[in-house]
Amino acid sequence: MQPASTDLITSIMPIIDRWKQEEGPLLPILNGILREFGYVPREVIPTIADALNLSRADVYGVVSFYHDYRAEPTGRHVLKLCRAEACQSMGGDAVAERLQQLLGVRFGETSIDGSVTLEPVYCLGLCACAPSAMLDGEVIGRLDEAKAAEIAAEVRS
């Protein structure tokens, strides 16, 4: 892991300082960094660990456990596609394959033009409306090929 730049450290220190004296400060700090940058740069993990007297492994473990924390920047849009059993049983695999074709990305990738990041999730709580997705925080139920094409057009515009 390469050391963080001085500018990066300078920009995260107010976030760390705001939360480090609170009980359970790690998640609020990570959330603040996520809001500021859209991701949690790997280079800031040692700085967070030092400020909270935690090991780097502790901080990295939290960042890697929660799927909303990313170590890389995302596209302008984030499309989360449910891959759980209920969605798969209602045609989710075909919709997933079609979306990957339309967007030109596989799961876990960001398109070359930076327009969209496609992420698998394992339940959005919309099992009755399967298959489902979430685009930029807004849930979409009953996905089919037509809705997949609409989503692709929306993120590309």
Automatic annotation (TrEMBL):
Its cofactor is [2Fe-2S] cluster. SUPFAM superfamilies: Thioredoxin-like. The keyword Iron-sulfur applies. Keywords: 2Fe-2S, Iron, Iron-sulfur, Metal-binding. InterPro entries: NADP_DH_HndA-like, NuoE-like, NuoE_N, Thioredoxin-like_sf. The keyword Metal-binding applies. Binds 1 [2Fe-2S] cluster. [2Fe-2S] cluster binds at C82, C87, C123, C127. One of its GO terms (molecular function) is 2 iron, 2 sulfur cluster binding. It holds the Pfam family 2Fe-2S_thioredx. Belongs to the complex I 24 kDa subunit family. This is Formate dehydrogenase subunit gamma.
